[in-house]
Amino acid sequence: MKINAGEIRVGMLLEYKNDLWQVLKTQHVKPGKGGAFAQVEMKSVGKNTKLNERFRSSETVEKASLEETDFNYLYEDENNYIFMKPTQLLAAFFCGAALLFNCENPKAGAFLGAGDNQGKAYSIGDDAMADMVVELAQAYSNQDTETLMQHYDSTFIGENGEATTRRWLESMDSISMVPYKIIPVQLDGSEDTQVLAWSKETRHYKNGAFEALDLMEFFNINEDGKVNAFRQWKAIDSANFGNASGGKFFGKTESDYTGRPLVFSNRNEVAIIEKMIADYNNMDMESMRSAFAETSIMNDYQGNRIEFTDASWPNVFKGLRSVAWKPYAIVPLKIRNTDAASGVIVTSIEKRVSSNGKVWEKELVEMFYFNLEGKITSMTQYARDL
Protein backbone atom coordinates (compact mmCIF):
# COMPACT_ATOMS: atom_id res chain seq x y z
CA MET A 1 0.00 0.00 0.00
CA LYS A 2 1.38 3.41 -0.99
CA ILE A 3 1.61 6.13 1.68
CA ASN A 4 3.13 9.61 1.74
CA ALA A 5 6.42 9.95 3.58
CA GLY A 6 4.70 12.32 6.02
CA GLU A 7 2.59 9.37 7.21
CA ILE A 8 5.57 7.18 8.20
CA ARG A 9 5.41 6.22 11.88
CA VAL A 10 7.67 4.26 14.26
CA GLY A 11 7.00 0.53 14.09
CA MET A 12 5.77 0.50 10.52
CA LEU A 13 7.20 -2.01 8.07
CA LEU A 14 8.24 -0.58 4.72
CA GLU A 15 9.18 -2.28 1.48
CA TYR A 16 12.19 -0.35 0.23
CA LYS A 17 15.12 -1.18 -2.06
CA ASN A 18 14.01 -4.82 -2.39
CA ASP A 19 14.05 -5.39 1.36
CA LEU A 20 11.70 -5.23 4.33
CA TRP A 21 12.46 -2.50 6.87
CA GLN A 22 11.10 -1.69 10.30
CA VAL A 23 10.92 2.00 11.20
CA LEU A 24 12.90 2.77 14.37
CA LYS A 25 12.87 6.59 14.41
CA THR A 26 11.23 9.34 12.40
CA GLN A 27 11.77 13.10 12.32
CA HIS A 28 9.45 15.23 10.23
CA VAL A 29 11.16 18.50 9.27
CA LYS A 30 9.68 21.61 7.65
CA PRO A 31 12.56 24.02 6.92
CA GLY A 32 12.14 27.76 6.30
CA LYS A 33 13.23 27.29 2.77
CA GLY A 34 12.58 24.24 0.63
CA GLY A 35 10.06 21.46 0.95
CA ALA A 36 9.26 19.42 4.06
CA PHE A 37 10.88 16.01 4.49
CA ALA A 38 10.99 12.99 6.81
CA GLN A 39 14.25 11.70 8.26
CA VAL A 40 13.73 7.98 8.88
CA GLU A 41 15.95 5.47 10.65
CA MET A 42 15.12 1.88 9.66
CA LYS A 43 16.33 -1.63 10.40
CA SER A 44 16.32 -4.48 7.90
CA VAL A 45 14.16 -7.29 9.17
CA GLY A 46 16.14 -9.99 7.41
CA LYS A 47 19.71 -8.62 7.38
CA ASN A 48 19.84 -6.83 10.74
CA THR A 49 21.40 -3.73 9.10
CA LYS A 50 20.34 -0.12 9.64
CA LEU A 51 19.63 2.64 7.15
CA ASN A 52 19.05 6.38 7.55
CA GLU A 53 17.03 7.78 4.69
CA ARG A 54 15.49 11.17 3.88
CA PHE A 55 12.14 11.22 2.08
CA ARG A 56 10.37 14.31 0.69
CA SER A 57 6.97 14.65 2.32
CA SER A 58 5.30 14.42 -1.05
CA GLU A 59 7.23 11.27 -1.88
CA THR A 60 5.39 7.96 -1.62
CA VAL A 61 6.72 4.76 -0.03
CA GLU A 62 5.38 1.20 0.03
CA LYS A 63 3.95 0.16 3.36
CA ALA A 64 4.19 -3.63 3.73
CA SER A 65 0.84 -5.40 3.81
CA LEU A 66 0.97 -7.77 6.79
CA GLU A 67 -1.59 -9.78 8.68
CA GLU A 68 -1.13 -9.22 12.39
CA THR A 69 -1.63 -12.30 14.58
CA ASP A 70 -1.11 -12.86 18.30
CA PHE A 71 1.31 -15.63 19.23
CA ASN A 72 2.01 -17.43 22.50
CA TYR A 73 5.62 -17.50 23.64
CA LEU A 74 6.79 -21.06 24.26
CA TYR A 75 10.53 -21.08 24.92
CA GLU A 76 13.90 -19.97 23.63
CA ASP A 77 16.95 -21.89 22.55
CA GLU A 78 20.47 -20.69 21.85
CA ASN A 79 19.55 -18.79 18.70
CA ASN A 80 15.78 -18.45 18.55
CA TYR A 81 12.59 -17.58 20.38
CA ILE A 82 9.84 -20.11 19.77
CA PHE A 83 6.20 -18.99 19.50
CA MET A 84 2.98 -20.74 18.57
CA LYS A 85 -0.32 -19.44 17.28
CA PRO A 86 -3.09 -19.98 19.84
CA THR A 87 -5.11 -21.93 17.28
CA GLN A 88 -2.16 -24.27 16.73
CA LEU A 89 -1.74 -24.68 20.48
CA LEU A 90 -5.39 -25.59 20.87
CA ALA A 91 -5.18 -27.99 17.95
CA ALA A 92 -2.16 -29.68 19.48
CA PHE A 93 -3.93 -29.94 22.82
CA PHE A 94 -7.07 -31.45 21.35
CA CYS A 95 -5.13 -33.84 19.13
CA GLY A 96 -3.38 -35.16 22.22
CA ALA A 97 -6.48 -35.13 24.36
CA ALA A 98 -8.43 -36.99 21.70
CA LEU A 99 -6.34 -40.04 22.54
CA LEU A 100 -8.10 -40.12 25.89
CA PHE A 101 -11.37 -38.30 25.35
CA ASN A 102 -13.99 -37.60 22.78
CA CYS A 103 -14.52 -33.82 22.89
CA GLU A 104 -18.27 -34.32 23.06
CA ASN A 105 -18.03 -37.08 25.66
CA PRO A 106 -15.11 -37.04 28.16
CA LYS A 107 -15.56 -40.75 28.82
CA ALA A 108 -14.13 -43.74 27.02
CA GLY A 109 -13.64 -47.47 27.22
CA ALA A 110 -15.94 -49.87 29.04
CA PHE A 111 -15.98 -52.37 31.87
CA LEU A 112 -16.57 -55.77 30.28
CA GLY A 113 -16.86 -57.94 33.36
CA ALA A 114 -20.10 -59.36 34.70
CA GLY A 115 -22.35 -57.52 37.13
CA ASP A 116 -23.98 -54.13 37.52
CA ASN A 117 -20.96 -52.25 36.15
CA GLN A 118 -20.88 -54.07 32.82
CA GLY A 119 -20.72 -51.62 29.94
CA LYS A 120 -19.98 -48.57 32.08
CA ALA A 121 -17.37 -46.14 30.74
CA TYR A 122 -14.19 -44.78 32.33
CA SER A 123 -12.93 -41.24 32.78
CA ILE A 124 -9.64 -39.86 34.04
CA GLY A 125 -9.54 -39.80 37.84
CA ASP A 126 -8.11 -37.43 40.43
CA ASP A 127 -4.36 -36.74 40.21
CA ALA A 128 -4.24 -36.81 44.00
CA MET A 129 -4.81 -40.57 43.84
CA ALA A 130 -1.82 -40.94 41.52
CA ASP A 131 0.26 -38.90 43.99
CA MET A 132 -0.87 -41.23 46.76
CA VAL A 133 0.47 -44.25 44.89
CA VAL A 134 3.81 -42.45 44.46
CA GLU A 135 3.90 -41.89 48.25
CA LEU A 136 3.01 -45.54 48.81
CA ALA A 137 5.87 -46.63 46.52
CA GLN A 138 8.29 -44.44 48.49
CA ALA A 139 7.21 -45.92 51.83
CA TYR A 140 7.52 -49.42 50.34
CA SER A 141 11.04 -48.66 49.07
CA ASN A 142 11.98 -47.28 52.49
CA GLN A 143 10.65 -50.51 54.09
CA ASP A 144 8.50 -48.24 56.26
CA THR A 145 5.67 -50.50 57.40
CA GLU A 146 3.93 -47.89 59.55
CA THR A 147 3.65 -45.32 56.76
CA LEU A 148 2.66 -48.02 54.30
CA MET A 149 -0.20 -49.13 56.54
CA GLN A 150 -1.59 -45.58 56.56
CA HIS A 151 -2.40 -45.96 52.86
CA TYR A 152 -4.36 -49.21 53.30
CA ASP A 153 -7.98 -49.63 54.35
CA SER A 154 -8.43 -51.77 57.47
CA THR A 155 -10.56 -54.27 55.56
CA PHE A 156 -7.70 -54.77 53.11
CA ILE A 157 -5.00 -55.17 55.77
CA GLY A 158 -6.92 -57.68 57.85
CA GLU A 159 -5.97 -58.89 61.31
CA ASN A 160 -2.43 -60.06 60.49
CA GLY A 161 -1.71 -57.85 57.48
CA GLU A 162 0.65 -55.45 59.23
CA ALA A 163 2.74 -58.25 60.76
CA THR A 164 2.87 -60.11 57.43
CA THR A 165 3.94 -56.95 55.58
CA ARG A 166 6.63 -56.22 58.16
CA ARG A 167 8.06 -59.76 57.88
CA TRP A 168 8.04 -59.45 54.10
CA LEU A 169 9.93 -56.15 54.10
CA GLU A 170 12.36 -57.31 56.79
CA SER A 171 13.26 -60.36 54.68
CA MET A 172 15.16 -58.02 52.36
CA ASP A 173 18.31 -55.95 52.70
CA SER A 174 16.82 -53.45 50.28
CA ILE A 175 13.90 -52.96 47.93
CA SER A 176 13.22 -50.31 45.32
CA MET A 177 9.93 -49.57 43.54
CA VAL A 178 10.23 -46.83 40.90
CA PRO A 179 6.96 -46.03 39.06
CA TYR A 180 7.41 -44.82 35.48
CA LYS A 181 3.75 -44.49 34.46
CA ILE A 182 0.64 -43.87 36.58
CA ILE A 183 -2.92 -43.39 35.29
CA PRO A 184 -5.89 -42.80 37.64
CA VAL A 185 -9.26 -43.78 36.15
CA GLN A 186 -12.80 -43.76 37.51
CA LEU A 187 -15.69 -45.96 36.50
CA ASP A 188 -18.90 -44.11 35.71
CA GLY A 189 -21.02 -43.83 38.85
CA SER A 190 -18.30 -45.08 41.22
CA GLU A 191 -16.75 -43.15 44.11
CA ASP A 192 -13.62 -45.31 43.92
CA THR A 193 -10.56 -44.48 41.83
CA GLN A 194 -8.62 -47.20 40.11
CA VAL A 195 -4.94 -46.38 39.69
CA LEU A 196 -2.92 -48.26 37.07
CA ALA A 197 0.80 -48.12 37.82
CA TRP A 198 3.79 -49.42 35.88
CA SER A 199 7.08 -49.66 37.78
CA LYS A 200 10.54 -51.18 37.96
CA GLU A 201 11.20 -53.06 41.19
CA THR A 202 14.39 -54.63 42.52
CA ARG A 203 14.58 -56.83 45.60
CA HIS A 204 17.76 -57.87 47.41
CA TYR A 205 16.89 -60.60 49.91
CA LYS A 206 18.89 -61.31 53.06
CA ASN A 207 19.36 -64.91 51.93
CA GLY A 208 21.30 -63.64 48.89
CA ALA A 209 18.50 -63.97 46.32
CA PHE A 210 17.81 -61.15 43.88
CA GLU A 211 14.82 -60.17 41.76
CA ALA A 212 14.40 -57.47 39.10
CA LEU A 213 10.79 -57.00 38.07
CA ASP A 214 8.83 -54.96 35.55
CA LEU A 215 5.39 -54.61 37.14
CA MET A 216 1.92 -53.51 36.14
CA GLU A 217 -0.25 -53.01 39.23
CA PHE A 218 -3.87 -52.11 39.97
CA PHE A 219 -4.73 -50.13 43.12
CA ASN A 220 -8.41 -49.61 43.98
CA ILE A 221 -8.70 -46.52 46.17
CA ASN A 222 -11.95 -45.89 48.02
CA GLU A 223 -13.62 -42.53 48.68
CA ASP A 224 -11.56 -42.19 51.89
CA GLY A 225 -8.35 -42.31 49.86
CA LYS A 226 -7.34 -45.78 51.11
CA VAL A 227 -6.30 -48.83 49.09
CA ASN A 228 -8.92 -51.56 49.51
CA ALA A 229 -7.92 -53.87 46.63
CA PHE A 230 -4.71 -54.64 44.78
CA ARG A 231 -3.60 -56.84 41.89
CA GLN A 232 -0.23 -57.32 40.27
CA TRP A 233 1.11 -58.59 36.95
CA LYS A 234 4.77 -58.91 36.13
CA ALA A 235 7.03 -59.22 33.13
CA ILE A 236 10.13 -61.11 34.22
CA ASP A 237 13.43 -59.37 33.58
CA SER A 238 16.34 -61.49 32.38
CA ALA A 239 17.95 -61.24 35.82
CA ASN A 240 15.22 -63.50 37.19
CA PHE A 241 16.30 -66.38 35.01
CA GLY A 242 19.38 -66.64 37.17
CA ASN A 243 23.03 -66.13 36.40
CA ALA A 244 24.68 -67.77 33.42
CA SER A 245 26.83 -69.68 35.90
CA GLY A 246 26.89 -70.30 39.62
CA GLY A 247 28.04 -72.44 42.49
CA LYS A 248 31.61 -73.68 42.77
CA PHE A 249 33.38 -76.96 42.01
CA PHE A 250 35.89 -78.17 44.61
CA GLY A 251 36.63 -81.80 43.70
CA LYS A 252 37.83 -84.56 45.97
CA THR A 253 41.39 -83.44 45.30
CA GLU A 254 42.60 -80.06 44.11
CA SER A 255 42.96 -79.68 40.35
CA ASP A 256 42.85 -77.10 37.58
CA TYR A 257 39.06 -77.24 37.85
CA THR A 258 38.94 -76.37 41.56
CA GLY A 259 37.05 -73.14 42.23
CA ARG A 260 35.38 -72.94 38.84
CA PRO A 261 31.63 -72.24 38.64
CA LEU A 262 29.09 -74.67 37.21
CA VAL A 263 26.74 -74.24 34.27
CA PHE A 264 23.78 -76.23 32.97
CA SER A 265 24.69 -78.85 30.41
CA ASN A 266 22.53 -79.30 27.31
CA ARG A 267 23.65 -82.51 25.62
CA ASN A 268 20.28 -84.22 25.90
CA GLU A 269 21.13 -85.71 29.29
CA VAL A 270 17.64 -85.11 30.69
CA ALA A 271 15.97 -87.03 27.85
CA ILE A 272 18.49 -89.88 28.22
CA ILE A 273 17.80 -90.13 31.97
CA GLU A 274 14.01 -90.00 31.43
CA LYS A 275 14.18 -92.82 28.87
CA MET A 276 16.45 -94.85 31.13
CA ILE A 277 13.97 -94.49 34.03
CA ALA A 278 11.09 -95.55 31.76
CA ASP A 279 13.08 -98.60 30.59
CA TYR A 280 13.92 -99.44 34.21
CA ASN A 281 10.25 -99.27 35.25
CA ASN A 282 9.40 -101.56 32.31
CA MET A 283 12.24 -103.86 33.39
CA ASP A 284 13.58 -103.61 29.84
CA MET A 285 17.24 -104.39 30.43
CA GLU A 286 18.30 -104.35 26.77
CA SER A 287 16.88 -100.87 26.12
CA MET A 288 18.12 -99.53 29.44
CA ARG A 289 21.73 -100.57 28.90
CA SER A 290 21.93 -98.41 25.73
CA ALA A 291 22.31 -95.35 28.00
CA PHE A 292 25.53 -96.71 29.55
CA ALA A 293 29.11 -96.99 28.37
CA GLU A 294 30.54 -100.44 27.62
CA THR A 295 31.81 -100.57 31.18
CA SER A 296 30.26 -98.50 33.95
CA ILE A 297 30.58 -98.32 37.73
CA MET A 298 27.85 -98.04 40.36
CA ASN A 299 28.73 -96.88 43.87
CA ASP A 300 25.61 -97.73 45.85
CA TYR A 301 24.37 -96.22 49.11
CA GLN A 302 25.83 -99.11 51.14
CA GLY A 303 29.35 -98.41 49.90
CA ASN A 304 29.50 -101.25 47.36
CA ARG A 305 31.32 -100.69 44.08
CA ILE A 306 29.59 -102.64 41.30
CA GLU A 307 30.98 -102.93 37.80
CA PHE A 308 28.51 -103.29 34.96
CA THR A 309 29.69 -105.15 31.87
CA ASP A 310 27.96 -107.20 29.17
CA ALA A 311 28.05 -110.19 31.51
CA SER A 312 26.41 -108.42 34.47
CA TRP A 313 23.50 -106.66 32.75
CA PRO A 314 21.26 -109.79 32.47
CA ASN A 315 21.23 -109.97 36.27
CA VAL A 316 19.92 -106.44 36.88
CA PHE A 317 16.30 -107.49 37.51
CA LYS A 318 17.04 -110.96 38.88
CA GLY A 319 14.87 -111.77 41.90
CA LEU A 320 12.55 -108.76 41.38
CA ARG A 321 8.82 -108.93 40.78
CA SER A 322 8.39 -105.20 40.05
CA VAL A 323 10.15 -101.84 40.29
CA ALA A 324 8.85 -98.25 40.42
CA TRP A 325 11.30 -95.35 40.08
CA LYS A 326 9.78 -91.87 40.22
CA PRO A 327 12.08 -88.82 39.76
CA TYR A 328 11.53 -85.53 41.58
CA ALA A 329 14.14 -83.57 39.64
CA ILE A 330 16.81 -84.06 36.97
CA VAL A 331 19.58 -81.44 36.91
CA PRO A 332 22.40 -81.65 34.29
CA LEU A 333 25.59 -79.75 35.22
CA LYS A 334 29.13 -79.27 33.99
CA ILE A 335 32.15 -77.24 35.03
CA ARG A 336 32.36 -74.01 33.09
CA ASN A 337 35.04 -73.70 30.40
CA THR A 338 35.83 -77.41 30.30
CA ASP A 339 35.06 -80.22 27.86
CA ALA A 340 31.53 -81.55 27.43
CA ALA A 341 31.69 -84.25 30.13
CA SER A 342 28.85 -83.66 32.58
CA GLY A 343 27.12 -84.88 35.70
CA VAL A 344 23.38 -85.22 36.25
CA ILE A 345 21.79 -85.02 39.71
CA VAL A 346 18.60 -87.07 40.03
CA THR A 347 16.41 -86.93 43.13
CA SER A 348 13.74 -89.61 43.29
CA ILE A 349 11.82 -92.25 45.19
CA GLU A 350 12.24 -95.92 44.27
CA LYS A 351 10.29 -99.00 45.26
CA ARG A 352 11.36 -102.60 44.56
CA VAL A 353 9.23 -105.65 45.26
CA SER A 354 11.15 -108.95 45.42
CA SER A 355 9.84 -112.29 44.13
CA ASN A 356 9.22 -113.30 47.75
CA GLY A 357 7.11 -110.14 48.37
CA LYS A 358 9.71 -108.19 50.33
CA VAL A 359 9.51 -104.43 49.72
CA TRP A 360 12.52 -102.14 49.42
CA GLU A 361 11.66 -98.42 49.29
CA LYS A 362 14.06 -95.46 49.53
CA GLU A 363 14.32 -91.77 48.76
CA LEU A 364 17.38 -91.32 46.55
CA VAL A 365 19.88 -88.73 45.41
CA GLU A 366 22.03 -90.05 42.57
CA MET A 367 24.82 -88.61 40.46
CA PHE A 368 25.17 -89.92 36.90
CA TYR A 369 28.39 -89.03 35.06
CA PHE A 370 28.36 -88.73 31.27
CA ASN A 371 31.47 -89.09 29.08
CA LEU A 372 32.23 -87.11 25.91
CA GLU A 373 30.18 -89.60 23.86
CA GLY A 374 27.09 -88.95 26.00
CA LYS A 375 27.17 -92.32 27.75
CA ILE A 376 26.88 -92.93 31.49
CA THR A 377 30.22 -94.10 32.89
CA SER A 378 29.45 -94.10 36.61
CA MET A 379 26.75 -93.49 39.18
CA THR A 380 27.01 -92.64 42.88
CA GLN A 381 23.96 -93.22 45.05
CA TYR A 382 22.76 -91.80 48.38
CA ALA A 383 19.61 -93.05 50.10
CA ARG A 384 17.43 -92.64 53.14
CA ASP A 385 14.51 -94.66 54.46
CA LEU A 386 11.04 -93.24 54.03
Describe the structure.
With 386 residues, this protein is an alpha+beta fold. The chain has 3 domains: 2-63, SH3 type barrels, CATH 2.30.30; 122-241, Nuclear Transport Factor 2, Chain: A, CATH 3.10.450; 262-385, Nuclear Transport Factor 2, Chain: A (Roll), CATH 3.10.450. The chain contains 7 helices and 20 strands. It has a 7-stranded mixed sheet with strand order 14-17-18-19-20-15-16, with helices on one face. It is elongated, with a radius of gyration of 42 Å.
Strand sequence of the main sheet, in spatial order? 14-17-18-19-20-15-16
Our count of helices gives 7
Task: Please give the CATH class of the largest domain.
Answer: Alpha Beta
Give the percentage of residues in beta strands.
35-45%
Strand elements, count: 20
Q: Over all CA atoms, what is the radius of gyration?
A: 42 Å
Write the layout of secondary structure elements.
Blueprint: E1 2-4, E2 13-16, E3 19-29, E4 37-44, E5 50-56, E6 60-63, E7 72-76, E8 81-84, H1 86-97, E9 122-124, H2 127-141, H3 145-149, H4 154-157, H5 161-170, E10 172-187, E11 193-205, E12 210-221, E13 227-236, E14 262-264, H6 269-281, H7 285-288, E15 292-299, E16 305-308, E17 320-335, E18 342-354, E19 359-370, E20 376-385
Parallel strand pairs: 15-20
Antiparallel strand pairs: 1-6, 2-3, 2-6, 3-4, 4-5, 7-8, 9-10, 10-11, 11-12, 12-13, 14-17, 15-16, 17-18, 18-19, 19-20
